[in-house]
Amino acid sequence: MTVQLGDIELTRLQGVEVDEGRNLVEHRLVGATGSVFQDLGRGSIRLILRGLLLGEVALEEIETLRSAHADGTPLRFSGDVAVGSEITEVLIEDFEVHQIPGYAFRYEFTLRVREWTEPPEAPGAALAAVDAEVAADGLGRVEEGVAIGGALDDPGALAALIDGNPDFLSRIDVGELAQAVLGALGGLDAMDFAHLASALTGVDVDKFVGLVEALAEADSLGDVLGILADEGIDLLEEITGIDLSEASALVQAFVGGPEFINKLQEVTDAAQALLDTIADFDPLAEVEPLAGGPS
User: Which domain of life is it from (predicted)?
Assistant: First the structure.
């Protein structure tokens, strides 16, 4: 009979005993004959293996079995005796070795092994990974919220935040975008706004359109146009992803507004220069010497 125990093949077994039982709890009833038994299921199968280990490899096999016994490591189990049972792994419960006098490398052994069953997971263990992921996601959202809250006070920082993580834009509504611009209107940097417009149109054109409309509703669109015109910012060079041919007249006017204001300013400056020239012109200056007659 051969039994495979871990990596060791026990080929010289002289006896195998199998003990199979059930876990029964006896309940005695007062005044009744006999007892009632509660069946808790099949118990672990116990086996007693007796045999010989021969040759120089016997010492290595003994050491392997001794280590497995000391470590309490489950070992794979297979053999004819396991046919029809569910036993696949065992623990070595007891290990005895006797060297036979007068023989070199000849040992008798007795192994008592017990069926090993993987212990069930602790309650809630299956949800531990989910809980950890939810906690990490919640912490990440808190950190994102703090970052967004700080960036809403500065259009330039908001543009950098969106460029670094476009997903943040989905958590910022149009009202918050407009408030960020309106709150900084007194000291708004034209290039910061241009970068914000570029970031918005590169990720979500609708958010840019909504921002323009919100600024118009707040009667602040002209103020923003004036700031852009003063700095000579051309939004057409900054924004991407927007089709002006399909945009509303308001958006078209806003995007082209700084250029229009610059041209209007040029016309205004030219008109002022002409008025200054006319004011300095005296039409009688050339005829005054003639008014006195010949000298």
Answer: Bacteria
